[in-house]
Design brief:
A hairpin with a 2-residue loop joins strand 12 and strand 13. By secondary structure, the chain is α+β, with helices and mostly antiparallel strands. It has a seven-stranded antiparallel β-sheet with strand order 10-9-8-7-13-12-11. The protein is built from five helices and 13 strands.
């Protein structure tokens, strides 16, 4: 049932979607490049400089010790995890409040009046030392590379998924009118899988090389499986001449109420009517989710021609377990009925209580 107007609207919609996906993909790719090529190497270099810094009394790139007196030990529990702080007093009258990483080995033993040693580097307190134990502050740059590495390794494959989807929508979408074609859904699922693996590896590995290596170990089988699935789908589509779906009509023994939409230039296609009622010899649409009032009955002149997957040009309505579309004809007018996969049998049973099923509708052998 080709419809030139519907095809034209689909192409326009695909071009708009392609532009949006391309823009998002470029932004994500740029962010990944900045993080992985600029930010992460700079953070690694800063961490190495801190670990290699010598101890000296002067300010600058050296580690400089300075004595402080503990004024207060603070614990902030307003966030998801507790945060620990030391308020200390210096000989020059300064009273900095410093956030530390974790609770030990300093925060949990010091009390007001204790003498601690603060270690400065580049003008900031990076650690406190008490009785030979050192606890690092949040300003410690050693692990600052972890978060940008995790974000970069997660964003990079997602950018490729968006860019591929943009290309497919712009150049290849005529090959499949489905709302969720495998040509885009399979690569996107693979990209999300790689991103889900890359983020934790990026955070917990101590080097970029290690993070990339472990992400690659996961990415290779994911990409292999995705490629196999795409090849299988391509071969399947070549063998199939149509995307008609076989559905067994089920005669409702009582009225069944479920979500669904009827669209077309007919009187029983109404805006906001997203509920269908199927019963013995009855199919009606209504705005009432309970199906009790404001019904509009579908006439007996409606004939089902086939059942197919949902296309991108079909109305958008959420179906938890997927949906199907019944292509129908009422005289010379095209009518579409969209319902959840598990409810399409009731739609066909209500419309076809007798006679032979049309093309694409399987006869119930039970």
């Amino acid at each position: 049932m080709s419809n030139p107007g519907r095809i034209t609207r689909a192409l326009r919609k695909d071009r708009r979607a392609a532009a949006i996906h391309a823009a998002v993909g470029v932004v994500l790719a740029t962010a990944a490049a900045i993080l992985l090529l600029l930010t992460v190497p700079a953070k690694h270099a800063e961490g190495r400089d801190f670990r290699a810094a010598p101890t000296c009394p002067a300010a600058g790139d050296c580690l400089r010790p300075e004595p402080f007196t503990v004024v207060k030990v603070a614990r902030d529990e307003t966030k998801k995890f507790p945060h620990y702080y030391l308020r200390v007093a210096g000989r020059d009258g300064s009273r900095p409040l410093v956030e530390l990483r974790g609770q030990s080995p300093v925060v949990d033993v010091v009390k007001a009046g204790d003498q601690v040693t603060a270690w400065y580097w580049k003008g900031e307190i990076r650690a406190f030392e008490f009785r030979g134990e050192r606890q690092y502050a949040e300003a410690d740059p050693t692990d600052d590379f972890r978060t940008p590495t995790a974000i970069g390794l997660a964003v990079a494959p997602l950018s490729l998924a968006f860019l591929w989807t943009a290309y497919w929508l712009a150049r290849r979408s005529a090959k499949s009118p489905r709302r969720a074609p495998w040509q885009t859904s399979v690569p996107c699922i693979a990209a999300f899988g790689i991103a889900a693996a890359g983020a934790p590896f990026g955070y917990y590995q101590d080097t970029m090389a290690g993070a990339l290596r472990w992400t690659g170990y996961v990415a290779v089988p994911i990409v292999t499986v995705a490629a196999a699935v795409m090849v299988w789908n391509a071969l399947r589509d070549r063998r199939k001449e149509t995307d008609t779906v076989e559905v067994v009509p089920r005669m409702p023994t009582r009225e069944e109420v479920f979500g669904g939409v009827i669209t077309g230039d007919v009187s029983y296609s109404k805006e906001g009517f997203h509920t269908l009622v199927a019963g013995p010899g009855l199919l009606a649409t209504t705005v009432d989710p309970t199906g009790r009032i404001l019904r509009t009955t579908v006439p007996g002149t409606l004939v089902v021609e086939r059942v197919r997957p949902v296309y991108r040009t079909d109305p958008s309505i959420y179906m938890e377990n997927g949906a199907l579309v019944a292509e129908c004809r009422d005289g010379d007018k095209q009518v579409l009925i969209l319902a959840a996969t598990e409810h399409m049998g009731w739609v066909l049973g209500a419309l076809l209580p007798d006679g032979q099923p049309p093309v694409g509708v399987a006869r119930d052998q039970g």
